[in-house]
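Re: the 108-residue chain
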Amino acid sequence: MVKLIVLFRAGKRKPDYEERYNNFLMSLERLPGIRKKVVNNVYSGPNGLVPFREVIEVFFDDRTALEHALISAPGIQAGEALVAFAGPDAVTLFAETMEEGFDSDSVG
């Protein structure tokens, strides 16, 4: 699998940020080929202060599916919405994923 990751920098927000952020999240659900969306609200880190407030992960089967989603009409609309409300406060990454699950009894 691959995923699109969007990191939102911590800092001051415009008054309409929450509404535009939520609209962006909903627009991601219209991407063709989407398999899963994860919204992470960052509350802290080892040293307290963190550079990012939210981390969004959108999963696809492979690079081709991700690329198709990004150039689709919903992908272009989501990208334009992201730039319009977050601009340089958003960092976008593409990553290949490897996941493993563990039972709580097997750790430690």
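Strands lie at 2-9, 36-41, 52-60, 90-96.
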